[in-house]
Amino acid sequence: MKQNVDAVVFDLDGTLINLGGFVDWERAQEDVLKTYIMHGCDEIKVAACRAKGLWSMLEEMYDLNAGDHGGRKATDIQKAAYRTLSGYEEEGIQLCTKMPGCSEDLEWLRDRGIPMGVCTRNSQTTAEKALREKGIAHYFEAVVGCTTKPHPDQLLECYRVLKVEPSRGVIVGDSHHDVIMGKKAGSYTVAVPIYFSNVEKMKEAGVDRIIDSLAELPNALMDI
């Protein structure tokens, strides 16, 4: 397996830890919306993005703001939005738990000298705090949270820090968004669906392997 895989990058929430179950996402979305409006964003555009859900709103608002205000201001606004979101995410850190098989997988990869990273739609601050709180931060050489532009730029940055070519990496996540991100970067993709994952969309995105739990990850990687 070492000959075919130079690094493994994990999504965070729903893949390594269960954070989302302890976050008030509805209230978070409303405050993120207020943050965009407070920073001068077009209220009609914000409302249209809000209707698509929190994560779609965050992704689309950056591009809309870049067109309306320029890249620098769009980045500043996005950072403010993620600061707002971080406050809600951090409320769940103390209560969140590691997903079954998480520790075993990380030990297995470390024993084989495979570098690991985290690439997440959670904020950088949340990701770093959650990994420390759960005692697994030391496994990762790169942690890239979403503070400005979303996927796949984050994944490419994670590989850059790891000094690994994307085609030699594997991305492991619970969402079809993770699959899309990985395929755009040219990586092998492994999906670990949870209760709200859309498996059909994962397949449409071209996922390379779907496993039932993290316990199956070592075998999936050995097959590459």
**Nearest-integer average pLDDT:** 92
Question: What is the percent of helical residues?
Answer: 40-55%
Overall 3D geometry?
A: globular
Biggest sheet features: 6 strands, parallel
Note poorly predicted spans. none
Radius of gyration, CA atoms, in whole angstroms: 17 Å
CATH superfamily of the largest domain: HAD superfamily/HAD-like
- What is the count of β-strands? 8
Structural class by secondary-structure content: alpha/beta
CATH architecture of the largest domain: 3-Layer(aba) Sandwich
Provide the spatial order of strands within the biggest beta sheet. 5-4-1-6-7-8
Distance between the termini: 7 Å
Order of helices and strands: EEHHHHEHEHEHEHEHEH
Please, how many domains?
2
Percentage of residues in strands: 5-15%
- CATH fold-level label of the largest domain: Rossmann fold
List keywords for this structure.
224 residues; alpha/beta; Rossmann fold; 6-stranded parallel β-sheet; 10 helices; globular
Task: Describe what is shown at a glance.
By secondary structure, the protein is of the alpha/beta class.
Overview of the structural elements:
The chain has a six-stranded parallel β-sheet, with helices on both faces. The chain is globular and about 50 Å long. It folds into two domains: 7-18 and 96-222, Rossmann fold (3-Layer(aba) Sandwich); 24-91. By secondary structure, the chain is α/β, with parallel strands linked by helices. 50% of the residues lie in helices and 12% in strands. The protein starts with 6 loop residues before the first strand and ends with a helix. It contains ten helices and eight strands.
